[in-house]
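can u do me a favor
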């Protein structure tokens, strides 16, 4: 901005009186437009931030979603899946990876009550992610604004590498997402870099770099 002002000052000094007046008018108009654009963008960012804060407040106020987050965040944890059960001891279910994977297995003839309850809360969570993807796709919010709130959970859903010996859990979740055609969730996952084709490209680039500096040839799968 300072460079532009200096350029305009020099240009004004080199022109005659008639041209100076015209250039002043144009210059004022340009700077007024720039200022208006900057103020508009700031106002839009503020509105997006307020909108997102409200959506996240509603997201975390949803008991089913909170249960889904607990299930996804822990290897085994007691979750209140049946809050209305007359027997308080029956309200909580110990959900481990094995039970989660069984609950998310597609095409079973029937599901036990605890499995059906797990499916319900996971569906509530995925429906919310679908809505966030719609917000991003329509430019109501950006992936950058959403990242502090959802990146950890997207990583939990899709990053098999970080899951370590719990990769079956991630496979079960992603299979459920694909079978039930949560295309918005898949797109949101892709936006944060958890995409098979992207990982493949990164692996191939890494193999070429290693070959260049170490002389080691890449594996056939990485060619």
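np, heres the sequence
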């Amino acid at each position: 901005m300072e460079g532009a002002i200096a350029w305009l000052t020099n240009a004004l000094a080199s022109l005659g009186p008639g041209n100076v007046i015209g250039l002043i008018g144009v210059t004022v108009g340009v700077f007024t437009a720039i200022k208006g654009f900057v103020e508009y963008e700031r106002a839009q960012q503020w509105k997006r931030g307020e909108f997102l804060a409200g959506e996240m407040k509603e997201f975390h106020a949803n008991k089913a979603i909170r249960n889904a987050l607990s299930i996804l965040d822990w290897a085994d944890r007691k979750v209140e899946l049946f809050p209305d059960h007359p027997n308080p001891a029956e309200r909580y279910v110990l959900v481990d990876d094995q039970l989660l994977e069984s609950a998310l297995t597609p095409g079973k003839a029937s599901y036990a009550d605890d499995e059906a309850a797990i499916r319900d809360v996971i569906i509530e969570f995925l429906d919310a992610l679908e809505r966030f993807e719609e917000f991003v796709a329509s430019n109501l919010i950006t992936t950058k604004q959403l990242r502090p709130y959802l990146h950890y959970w997207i990583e939990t859903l899709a990053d098999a590498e970080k899951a370590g010996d719990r990769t079956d859990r991630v496979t079960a979740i992603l299979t459920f997402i694909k079978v039930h055609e949560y295309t918005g969730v898949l797109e949101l996952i892709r936006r944060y870099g958890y995409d098979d084709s992207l990982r493949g490209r990164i692996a191939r680039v890494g193999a070429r770099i290693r070959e260049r500096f170490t002389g080691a040839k890449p594996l056939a799968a990485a060619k």
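The chain is about 75% helix and 5% strand. hope that helps!!
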